[in-house]
């Protein structure tokens, strides 16, 4: 495994030639040099830990699997001096629970730097029914790329977080840090209401200064990216009604247009009237006819009808993604107005289900990018660019964004998240761990 990392950070191993070649203004401190050395030494163990975690199926609804991941991660966090507790949620909306860990600053309250909140999740989108279950090295990559369920989203992020914290502990930097960790067991399909399922995370944010979300990062055109915003993600359900009868009477004053024409009117007006920058809205399922009924999971259903019968019922399911919560509220209002403008003898209602809010860019998050790129200079790495939020999805950090600035994508780098064949670049584990160890150390001093 050592060969996997020999090229990482220009062959950095403590004070490598690449490490010394940087500008004097970005020179590492003694503590930072010790952290880099510790991460290089930890690299084989980090890959072994990743393989162990990936080989545990922890689909969101596989509660024993999520708990099994917790049972691997929890002792490692405890060994670093954190006070760790498990908040079970099996009785609440059939979710596993949250792992919460707290590390107070040894110098006492008010005598340390920024209070850090580290966010992550232990679940994946791959349930036990998936055929994608095991960690393997991708053939033809010289051992540099691995594949497996959640290998970058975000079990690789858990490994990055742990490696960075272990390095801080080894270098004596962790004692002076005030850090809270909240790892959810249901990020891929959060429980409702979020006032309960995200209570631990939100409570921690109210007592923190910075949030780092160890979700997967992206590499675009060979450049490592960073995110400081996330789009929202929520779903909607549209139901329409109409009078039913012989099709020869459709459009007449007595019968009107029926439920399916009302549904298509609304969907077409969504298409033509809603588009604006940063907004997407998808229609994922449509049913209509004499009867239309969703299945229990909301992933399909049944419909009956005849070509010569005016349909009395129809429904559609879709999603909505926005750049800001203000945009969400405004677009929802426009959608409701379109729905309310009924065709003759037809009716319609729309419901918006609880989802992920948006995380908008802030001056605070932009300042964090500047600090991160100062770390990159110290590590002789290219600066990271801010990724377009249109290229990413929603996530837990949006729930804490009203309280603290944050960075998104501080975990492993890979491709194909949420799809069979998901991969991780193994050299990203030590590189990201070094970035985060140095950043957390500097934030803890400021």
Structural commentary:
The chain is of the alpha+beta class and 446 residues long. It contains 12 helices and 19 strands. It is elongated. The two termini are 36 Å apart. Residues 1-25 have low confidence and may be disordered.
Q: Would you kindly provide a brief summary of this structure?
A:
The protein has 446 residues and is α+β, with helices and mostly antiparallel strands.
Write the SSE topology.
Layout: H1 2-5, H2 17-20, H3 30-54, H4 63-78, E1 83-88, E2 97-103, E3 116-121, E4 136-137, E5 145-147, H5 155-170, E6 179-184, H6 194-197, H7 199-205, E7 210-213, E8 219-220, E9 223-226, E10 234-242, H8 258-273, E11 280-289, E12 291-294, E13 301-304, E14 313-321, H9 325-340, E15 346-352, H10 363-378, E16 385-386, H11 397-400, E17 406-408, E18 414-415, E19 423-425, H12 428-445
Parallel strand pairs: 3-6, 3-7, 7-17, 9-16
Antiparallel strand pairs: 1-2, 2-6, 4-5, 5-19, 8-9, 10-14, 10-15, 11-14, 12-13, 18-19
Helix pairs in contact: 3-5, 3-12, 5-12, 10-12
């Amino acid at each position: 495994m050592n060969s996997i990392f020999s090229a990482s950070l220009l062959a950095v191993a403590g004070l490598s030639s690449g490490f010394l070649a940087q500008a004097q203004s970005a020179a590492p401190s003694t503590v930072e040099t010790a952290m880099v050395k510790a991460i290089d030494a930890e690299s084989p163990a980090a890959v072994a830990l990743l393989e162990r975690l990936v080989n545990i199926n922890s689909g969101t609804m596989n509660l024993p699997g999520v708990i099994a991941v917790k049972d691997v991660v929890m002792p490692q966090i405890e060994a670093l001096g954190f006070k760790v507790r498990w908040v079970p949620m099996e009785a609440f909306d059939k979710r596993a629970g949250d792992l919460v860990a707290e590390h107070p600053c040894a110098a006492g309250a008010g005598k340390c730097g920024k209070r850090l909140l580290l966010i992550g999740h232990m679940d994946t989108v791959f349930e036990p029914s998936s055929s994608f279950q095991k960690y393997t090295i991708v053939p033809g990559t010289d051992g540099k790329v691995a594949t497996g369920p959640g290998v970058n989203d975000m079990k690789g992020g858990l490994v990055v977080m742990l490696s960075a914290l272990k390095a801080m502990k080894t270098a004596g930097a962790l004692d002076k840090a005030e850090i809270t960790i909240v790892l959810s067991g249901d990020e891929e399909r959060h429980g409702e209401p979020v006032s309960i399922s995200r209570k631990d995370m939100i409570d921690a944010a109210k007592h923190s200064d910075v949030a780092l979300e160890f979700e997967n990062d992206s590499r675009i055109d060979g450049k490592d990216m960073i995110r400081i915003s996330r789009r929202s993600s929520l779903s909607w359900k549209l139901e329409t009604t109409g009078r039913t009868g012989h099709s020869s009477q459709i459009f007449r004053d007595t019968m009107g247009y029926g439920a399916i024409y009302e549904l298509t009117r609304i969907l077409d007006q969504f298409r033509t009237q809603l588009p604006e920058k940063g907004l997407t809205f998808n229609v994922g399922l449509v049913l209509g006819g004499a009867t239309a009924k969703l299945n229990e999971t909301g992933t399909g259903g049944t419909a009956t009808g005849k070509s010569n019968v005016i349909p009395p019922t129809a429904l559609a399911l879709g999603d909505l993604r926005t750049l800001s919560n203000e945009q969400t509220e405004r677009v929802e209002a426009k959608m409701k107005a379109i729905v309310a403008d009924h065709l003759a003898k037809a009716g319609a209602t729309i419901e918006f289900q609880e989802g992920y809010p948006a995380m908008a860019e802030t001056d605070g998050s932009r300042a964090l990018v500047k600090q991160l790129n100062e770390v990159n200079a110290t590590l002789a790495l290219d600066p990271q660019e801010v990724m377009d939020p249109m290229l990413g999805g929603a996530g837990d950090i949006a729930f804490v964004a009203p309280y603290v600035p944050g960075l998104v994508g501080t975990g492993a780098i890979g491709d194909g998240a949420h799809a069979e064949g998901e991969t991780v670049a193994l050299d990203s584990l030590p590189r990201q761990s070094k970035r985060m160890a140095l950043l957390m150390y500097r934030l803890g001093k400021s």
